[in-house]
Write a structure and sequence with these properties.
The protein is mostly helical. The model has no long low-confidence stretch (mean pLDDT about 75). A hairpin with a 4-residue loop joins strand 1 and strand 2. Helix 2 packs antiparallel against helix 9, helix 3 packs antiparallel against helix 5 and helix 7 runs antiparallel to helix 9. The longest helix is centred in the middle third of the chain and has 41 residues. It has a four-stranded mixed sheet with strand order 3-2-1-4, with helices on both faces.
Length: about 375
């Protein structure tokens, strides 16, 4: 345990660790992907709704700038005029706002999925620790954020300046167009400009998403000891599982012993193996194995059979083959029908009174080819 803190986190996070992290609100997120998604959705919405929005904007400006003499000297009219203009513009911006809100949720859940956790909102005193704050400030993540910020500034700056230089003549020409068409075209230019800048951010987002996924996996990596401890916690400790197996075996053995008195014959090795067989002549099936065992269990099967007057029949080759080729509850294999039938016929005659003139059968010697069952 002394070297426990020095273990390296070389193991990939398990499904349970990932689920526990999700419950705490720890999921992979990419701010660059979210920003790119929002900007792409916003630019598309501006191009899609440029016509309706420009008409509302024109109506708002026309209403605000068209006043009569009485309204110009009315001190209360300014508030009313401002409210009307703001309301008209706000209604026109509702479609754009809906698209942006949807883009925020969809882009945020693109790589980490939906996650809501109250644990993430709990107050943590370590967040007020200046030492940890400085550590985060000079961490690898902070350096990565600084590099991304510089890359975004450079890329967006180059794209924006290039696009403005390309479209400067059109921007200047808006002053000579009618107001209605100038407003519509200005909104379209803003949408196209935002779309072009957003396309540049796709490059940064494409590089940031794999990095965030890798960093998330690295953060949740586990030591080998943590993996072993989690395995013990989820599947149970080995000693507990061993104890359960012992109890299950004891229960199965007890049930098996309860079926021995119902057997027709117990075929033995004679000392090391015991197989209890039962045949129901009312059914069309073959004899079934109701109990089997070796050594101590075999001795107990013989003792119970003797207590309940179940015949014991010594046939070592047959006993060995039955033990290898059958399980409790199985019917005997077809290759053993003849051998088992000889034994049962002999046992049944022992239990019956011989008719006058009927000759008593000699104990059979079942012929079994053990080589046919060696691959079982």
């Amino acid at each position: 345990m002394a070297d426990e803190p020095q273990q390296e986190r070389t193991e990939q996070p398990t499904a349970k660790r990932l689920e526990d992290a999700r419950k705490k609100g720890e999921v992979p997120r990419s701010k660059e992907l979210s920003m790119t998604g929002v900007m792409l959705a916003g630019s598309a919405a501006m191009l899609l709704f440029s016509g309706p929005f420009s008409r509302r904007l024109l109506d708002a400006f026309s209403g605000a700038l068209t006043i009569d003499r009485a309204q110009a000297f009315d001190e209360s009219y300014l508030v009313q005029a401002f409210s009307d203009v703001a309301g008209t513009i706000f209604i026109g911006l509702i479609p754009l706002g809906v698209v942006l809100v949807a883009a925020v949720f969809l882009s945020a859940a693109a790589i980490g999925g939906w996650s809501f956790s109250t644990k993430a909102m709990k107050f943590k005193t370590e967040r007020l620790n200046p030492g940890k704050g400085f550590k985060r400030l000079f961490s690898a993540n902070s350096a990565n954020e600084l590099v991304k910020a510089m890359a975004k500034f450079s890329l967006v700056g180059v794209i924006a300046v290039s696009w403005l230089w390309w479209s400067v003549d059109e921007l200047v020409g808006l002053g000579g167009q009618p107001v209605a068409s100038a407003i519509t075209r200005a909104i379209e230019i803003c949408g196209v400009s935002l779309l072009i800048v957003s396309c540049g951010l796709i490059v940064i987002a494409a590089a940031d998403v794999p990095f965030q996924l890798w960093q998330y996996q690295k953060k949740l990596r586990m030591t080998r000891q943590e993996v072993r401890d989690e395995l013990k916690e989820t599947e149970g400790r080995p000693e507990v599982k061993a104890r359960i197996r012992v109890l299950q075996q004891q229960i199965a053995t007890r049930r098996m012993m309860e079926d021995v008195p119902t057997a027709d014959v117990v075929i033995t090795n004679p000392a090391h193996i015991a197989i209890a067989l039962k045949y129901n002549d009312a059914s069309t099936g073959a004899p079934k194995v109701v109990a089997k065992g070796k050594d101590l269990i075999a001795r107990r099967i013989r003792e119970i059979a003797a207590e309940h007057n179940v015949p014991l029949f010594s046939a070592p080759p047959l006993a060995r083959v039955l033990f290898r080729s059958t399980e409790i509850g199985d019917e005997i294999p077809g290759k053993l029908y003849t051998a088992v039938a000889q034994v049962l016929a002999y046992i049944y005659q022992l239990n019956e009174t011989l008719r006058p003139g009927q000759k008593r059968l000699e104990p059979p010697v079942p012929v079994v080819d053990e080589d046919k069952f060696n691959d079982r």
